[in-house]
Amino acid sequence: MTTYLIVGSGLFGSVFADQMAKNGHRVTVLEKRNHIAGNIYTEEVNGIQVHKYGAHIFHTSNKKIWDYINQFATFNRFTNTPMAFSKGRLYNLPFNMHTFHSLWGVKTPEEAKAKIAEQTKDYEERNPNNLEEQALSLVGKDIYEALIKEYTEKQWGKPCTELPAFIIKRLPIRFTFDNNYFNDLYQGIPIGGYTQIVEKMLAHPNIEIELMTDFLGNKKEWLEKFDRVVYTGMIDEFYDYCFGELEYRSLDFVHEQLPYGNYQGNAVVNYIDKDIPYTRIIEHKHFESGNQPQTIITKEYPKEWQKGEEPFYPVNDQKNQKIYDKYMSLAKNEPQVVFGGRLGMYRYFDMHQVIEEALNLSSKMLSST
Ligand code: FAD
Ligand code: UDP
């Protein structure tokens, strides 16, 4: 039996804890917040599951991951079909025939392809160096200006010419009338929210949980007490920023309860224009088709990350990657500690990727003990 300290009760730490506990190891989970589940935490308010840290839609094409998560909740058949509000008009996302029709009046895939080809021809041969070039080469100027540029600059707080190209590749482009945001085979929302999933993962007699406890407040003592440590907080903070700060993007979530049955008719509406300070409004009841007389919405305001703020997004550009590599060179010489999750690995992971990474790490560690 090995003793494990897991720092962080988010999805990574909880999947890892579940696996180790089931295999007979003793696990302590430390969490500095006053609740478990990290950023997938949901809370019931007047019968509505509120996603406290932004909309979380589960999607994967990996059957193993889908079967794994379905042990802990029943998923509904929610399909993410966000809308985008730009300069007084609403468009369908991801970019598809509805979007092309609203923008240009085109009615067939052939007409839409011709329009995009005309706008992307100058960029075809070039290897995109940044997000702006990537967007212009994929969808052309009209879509870039109507639906990407201002949203992206607001979200990341930098010009699109200074952002990595991969961010925009998350958005599909389709020549069909399909508004499904994700291309994955499996998608849904856990009926009753995400917190129950983490509760069940951590409900093993071999697991102890300590809330409101910051590992870094007593780093030396914690390291002495346990055989192995899995750290899912910020890797630069763990090393006291000795190679400088990694860059993150933070967010403010402003929740409002309103006396309407239906505020915006959709779970997610994006706001593109730069003079609107938030990027999205989430109406939570639409994740689970609620028929409550009132509604709860959340506005998502992007903001600069500073020490003490929640680091919601890693900024995976080359400058930060170099800093991260330096921290990893320290981590490689520290066999007691392994870094996991969005912050420990400094990667823009979705939930299914976090689960996959945690399952891989646990099976590697189980086979070596
Ligand atoms: P976290 O959830 O951040 O957990 C880390 C935990 O460690 C936190 O609870 C933190 O408090 C704790 N911690 C950190 N440092 C310490 C310390 N020193 N001591 C003690 N505790 C510590 N993914 C999807 O698949 N679909 C979506 O629709 C989706 N939407 C998203 C929307 C937003 C706004 C954001 C920010 C993310 C979204 N994601 C989505 C991604 C998803 O949230 C992550 O993949 C997942 O939650 C990461 O889990 P994690 O355990 O790595 O990190
Ligand atoms: N994006 C955009 N317009 C939109 C929605 C997204 O330009 O209406 C871009 C933006 O750069 C964003 C990226 O696509 O950072 C990924 O967006 P998504 O909503 O998929 O990611 P999330 O913020 O949920 O991780």
Automatic annotation (TrEMBL):
<keyword id="KW-0274">FAD</keyword>
<keyword id="KW-0413">Isomerase</keyword>
<feature type="domain" description="UDP-galactopyranose mutase C-terminal">
    <location>
        <begin position="147"/>
        <end position="348"/>
    </location>
</feature>
<dbReference type="Pfam" id="PF03275">
    <property type="entry name" value="GLF"/>
</dbReference>
<dbReference type="Pfam" id="PF13450">
    <property type="entry name" value="NAD_binding_8"/>
</dbReference>
<keyword id="KW-0285">Flavoprotein</keyword>
<dbReference type="GO" id="GO:0008767">
    <property type="term" value="F:UDP-galactopyranose mutase activity"/>
</dbReference>
<dbReference type="InterPro" id="IPR004379">
    <property type="entry name" value="UDP-GALP_mutase"/>
</dbReference>
<protein>
    <submittedName>
        <fullName>UDP-galactopyranose mutase</fullName>
        <ecNumber>5.4.99.9</ecNumber>
    </submittedName>
</protein>
<comment type="similarity">
    <text>Belongs to the UDP-galactopyranose/dTDP-fucopyranose mutase family.</text>
</comment>
<dbReference type="InterPro" id="IPR015899">
    <property type="entry name" value="UDP-GalPyranose_mutase_C"/>
</dbReference>
